[in-house]
Amino acid sequence: MTGNKIEKVLGSGKLMVLDGAMGTMIQSYHLTEDDFRGERFKDIPGQMQGNNDILVLTRPDVIKDIHRRYLEAGADIITANTFSSQRISMADYHCEHLVQELNREAVRIAREAVQEYISENPDRECCVIATVGPTNKTLSMSPDVSDPSYRAISYDDMFDAYIEQLQVLFDCNVDAVLLETIFDTLNCKAGIHAYQIVREKCGKDIPLMLSVTVSDKAGRLLSGQTLEAFLASVQHAPILSVGLNCSFGAEDMISCLRVLAEKAPYYITAHPNAGLPNTLGGYDQTPEMMLSQMRHFVEEGLVNVIGGCCGTTPEHIKALGSLKSGKAHVPVPPSEDMWLSGLELMEVRAQADASFVNVGERCNVAGSRKFLRLIKEGSYEEALAIARKQVDDGAMVLDVNMDDGLLDAEKEMKHFLNMLACDPDIYRVPVMIDSSNWNVVLQGLKCLQGKCIVNSISLKEGEEVFLSHARDIKMMGAAVVVMAFDENGQADTYERKIAVCERSYHLLVDKVGIAPQDIIFDPNVLSVATGIPEHNLYALDFIRATEWIKNNLTGAHVSGGVSNLSFSFRGNNWIREAMHAVFLFHAQQKGMDFGIVNPSAKVMYSDIPVEKLQIIEDALLRPTQENADSLISLAQDIAEQTVDVIEKSDTESFKKPVEERLIEALTKGNSRNLEADLQEALAKYEFAVKVIEGPLMDGMNNVGRLFGEGKMFLPVA
């Protein structure tokens, strides 16, 4: 049976049975240290017992007999004994030099067992797949509690180890590769990266299967990701199936399988343990008990492949064979929405009514003097506090930039992202890796297990460099910001913006194969009212280009660095925030769904007095020199009156009824007088629940109304 036949069987709606545990069966043979060493390895230092993969060289008869027993029990898929046959795990036994031989022999023994069995049972059709374990290291977590940035191994070393193993497995023409017991998505991404490189080099279409182990009943991996976030992280790969193995017993696995069945556009596999281990480390679940629990997988149509992991035996597999005539899972269609992830999934719809995505801008050494100072001083905990505050304030994506002439940007990006990845309060949201140095971008991609965004690529250096960078991004599973630049420079007019974006789109989609929903165009937010007449059109041209992109470049998103718009008014925070609010309100109506903004900005569209709003809208949407001059005059007036206006606003607000003050506090996120207002409300309403059901609920309804009208931007957690 070839890899394509596996897909054919699954596509026909038939269930397949995977074999059971290898380690459990090896223990039943009561092998000694001498069995593991044999004559060949008698002089290797340390203990060899426990290195199950070495048995393909020292006791191949045992491994072959185990395969044979699983075939006789009814297994359709035999897993070669290759789980730890890479140099990282083998280094513990001083056997890293044996990787190629171990994999070749493991596949040979499995194939030999299958061929002998089929010759005796010609009505059966069985296959051999190679299991690839997660190694005994982790790329997303630090083994040193005092240093969250430390990693025991680098991405490149893990990638190289997987390359070495997978090259042998492809040469052996296994029917599929199964990356299993995935507890850290970044380990898995290194394996997927290696798989894609080897697959491309060999030109062989050997399917890829993935199987995750979750660490708690909430369905998170040990590295903290949810299953939905995991699916986002790996969706760039040519995957045949995803599934679950190890973890708990079948009974506690079903809720996680439902998540996969609902979200994953792949076939689903499940090979659980025989229950949870007892106090002696053994497994007590009988074949009948396991069958009873896994029957629900089939009755609900959740799976395509069933088998066993720790504690299972041929008797368990034989029992599961009775489920083969049951209902198989039908994969769901791939999502047309953008999937991003940190530890959790964030879905961004491509439709015009999609939610607006705030990209926090303060972890950028080029845009924040404080952040730059902290990085230069090595005050990383304080720098992380800036990231945490942005998430708390509503940033849905974090932009991280280390481009500064006095910094080692690659080193700083790696260090900061490693620390960030260990903080679940921050890393629940996706990260935008922001750099003009491609090596810094690649370093960042090797630090994050989630699906992040690369900011940015452009045609500035020509098509060859553009396509090379785009292929790297696709290979490593990220979304991408595409700046409206080409060989002739920045696109500063409406016509240039749409021409450059259209050319970039077709190169990315048609030549590289990047999904349209993973493309975010930045048609360049440029400064208005600078005194140069041509600049007055910049806001309107961006908004017009946004509408054109949404109508003509299917699936793509639009973003912009909003603070650039008001750069000529720096120092005047009120006018800048008001301009940003007006610009975002109108740009969002035309399809702008991302923006690099300050999520804690206080001025909302609905706050701006009518006469000031008219001046700002005229300058941005009806650009003339006269309207630009009016905006400049307004900014000068605001700069002179800011302190008086704030003091007057506080005084006037205090004169309002307490209900109005509470509604205003909720809407604007202003807690300055909140405690006193709540005390006044409690005295008036007597019971706290009446305050909640009254003015506080009215305030939340007002927030919802403003959000629905596009006059306010909220975090989506």
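the 2nd protein, sequnce then structure:
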Amino acid sequence: MGGGLSIPEAGDRLSRTCSFEDSVRRLRYVSGSRGDALERLGILRVRDLMLHVPRRYLDFTHTVKIGLCEVGSTVTVVGTVDKVSQRQPRPRMNIVTVDIYDDTGALTATFFRQPWLYQQLHKGDTIALSGEVLFYKGFRQMKAPFIEQLEGSQDGSGYARILPVHPVGEGITASWMRRIVSAAIADAGDACDFLPADLVARHGFMSLGRALREIHYPATLDGARSARRRLAYDELLCLQLALLTRQRIDLGDRVPKRHTVAGMHVEALRRALPFSLTDEQEAAAIDILSDMAAPRVMNRLLLGDVGTGKTAVAAVALAAVADSGMQAAVMAPTSVLARQYAEKVGPLLDAAGIRWTLITGSTPARERADAAERIAAGEVDAVFGTTAILSDDISFRELSLVVIDEQHRFGVNQRALLRSKGAGADLLAMTATPIPRTLALSLYGDVDVSRITRRPVSGAGISTKVLTPENLDVAYEAIREAVARGHQAYVICPLIDDSDDGSELDDVVEGAVTQESLRAAVATRDELARSIFPDLSVELLNGRMSASEKDEVMMRFRAGEADVLVSTTVVEVGVDVPDATVMLVFNADRFGLATLHQLRGRVGRGNHPGTVFLASAAREGSTARTRLSALERTSDGFELAELDLKLRHEGEVLGYRQSGGVSLRISDLATDLDLVEAAHADARAIAGEDPDLGSDTHRPLAAEVRSRFSAYFDEVVRS
């Protein structure tokens, strides 16, 4: 058609683009049962299938004969099945062993918890295996390799030179997944690109259509890597825009509170502090005060490891509220933490002439009514409390600052309800959970982040030691010696009782396997009280106890009425028991690094050094042992968080693996820092230029954001 526009071609591409929203069941080869299998994998639409990217590739341009495999190398081999066997050494542990051979040698592959392979594989089948080659008892082996059952010739020549391995599940095989994806790419893959052309050019990305073809059926592995980067950037940019748009919608019609940030109460509070703020604390305080003085609603997250002084920074913000003649509310997840805030910050506020009160679920009715009356009348500047302050009887004359400690412990509705008590109130969320920079940028893209990474006072210090189960006497003796000196100890277990499967835990490493049975807190408490420490007071704390029961146990422990506290991970972040100097963590390999780091922060908080024993049956050189050794080596929470992110999925690190939070399908936050930062900056620039994403340039992008993230946000992009 010469140099003119091809209207029919453009129309076809638009039609293919629109088909991304169609049900996956409209595709070729998707029968009723296969459609059900795809939906179990979260693949509901054609778009979901297009973004269901391979987890790895079998590179048949580099297959290696079994007899030529070097021990320690990661290779792809193709062979014939000689024998398939299975055994079950203990409950819930099924092991399938597959022996294969080619014309140069033999190899044994071992698969854990995949019993279906015993039924699926038969003598004479041709399979491809990809993994690390080991040598054991005179034979080459692979442990838990990737496996592909081939239907062509033994050498794999009947397949694409680079074979994608997509994640699959019950009811659909890898070969059927490839067939369905191939048909979808042929029918709808040449879609219009929603990304503005200037971004594609600036970052040197391939087009969307090419990226989809290359990610699923690459000509080269380099092409697959380039395609993944394009699609990872798309995912991160859409998430950033969704977060920013949600923030704009949430805060757009609120009139911000303008605070006085250099008044007499702030100066008095600074004088009352028993120390000068460090450079990092001062920078965080300046960030917060600048936001509070600005003509916009503050939405800031303060990240700081245990003992970095977040509380002192928050106290400065409370003083600015008092200078402004308004009110602040500080909400903590438990009564123990709320009281601790009052005990630590209250005297500073008193010295600065700032009026405050405390409200928890156990506050006596008459005292609560009096406090509520004074709050409503504006006679209280700052309120410390738990979710008890969300009740209808607590109303503020002018709430201008909401501070939420350990913000991830509260639901979205709880945070919104407190904020609704003061139209236009600023929000300061705080957490002692170290969060990697990429995770903070990607999942808190709508929040300004301040970080405090160094402790102003190192304290007496904490030493961490990894023990095998055979050496528990070392930990028991340390606990006994500590109690003899007037100190206390924690014992942490992964399970609550023997019937627990661990599904209630906030942070458990998925797939962690050791030969060690899992410890339950109830049984461990009984064993310690009966056999190990019969002369000591041993208490129990777990997540199935009511809030009042947990508070009562923690208050007794803080008061020194118990020597040893046996608990699950519900031991509260921030709870201060200065006399606790020893901790023993059973099955330590079952927990993420962030959780273990938080747990050990419970000891050594006073003038006496703390010792943490991590008990694990993990072998030397294993991934689990590498993680635990990192805790022996460093006390830097952010360094550990970065390592945790490299070893695990971002959903596991934050603890939302079981709660259905936003998860990233393609991007890898451990390695994609440049993409995260680029997407963050680009999203801010786009939102600043076109907040509604309503221009012709950004309208396709708005549709993509809406399509990807509408399930996670109430109203991401206005129609």
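The two ends are 36 Å apart (CA to CA). The first strand starts at residue 56 and ends at 59.
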